[in-house]
Amino acid sequence: MSIVSAIVLFAVIWWMTFFIVLPLRNVTQGEDNNVEPGTHSSAPASFSFKKKARTTTLWAILAYIIIAGIILTGAIEVRDFDWFNRMGAPSLRPE
């Protein structure tokens, strides 16, 4: 895996993790009984991007280590997902 591939993989994992972490532990203004005029009651009462980014980064690093390890060791390859044998026979020469 080249350095560019590693950076792109981490960026994709980080954003996917961010969208998972974003709604967690979210308290709305309606639940807090403090709705600001002009906002919807489902708007967040207090949002800390720094806290969400920190949580996302920690989980993304863990996921990156696992996924990059699987890719680098070759434990799972693309050929493992070829259920209809469309890739043909595997090459016998070592690469």
Task: Describe, in plain words, how this protein is organized in 3D.
- There is one protein chain.
- This protein has 3 helices and no strands.
- With 95 residues, the protein is mainly alpha-helical.
- The chain has a domain at 12-19 and 48-82.
- α1 crosses α3.
Structural class of the secondary elements? Answer: mainly alpha
Shape verdict: elongated
Largest beta-sheet details:
none
The total count of strands amounts to 0
The share of residues in helices is: 40-55%
Low-pLDDT runs of 5+ residues are none
Question: What integer is the average pLDDT?
Answer: 89
What distance separates the N and C termini? 14 Å
Report the sheet-strand fraction: under 5%
Order of helices and strands: HHH
Number of helices: 3
Taking Cα atoms only, what radius of gyration do you get, to the nearest Å?
21 Å
Annotation keywords:
95 residues, 3 helices, single chain, mainly alpha
Q: What is this entry, summarized?
A:
Helix content is 51%, strand content 0%. It has 3 helices and no strands.
Mind sketching the topology for me?
Layout: H1 3-21, H2 29-32, H3 49-73
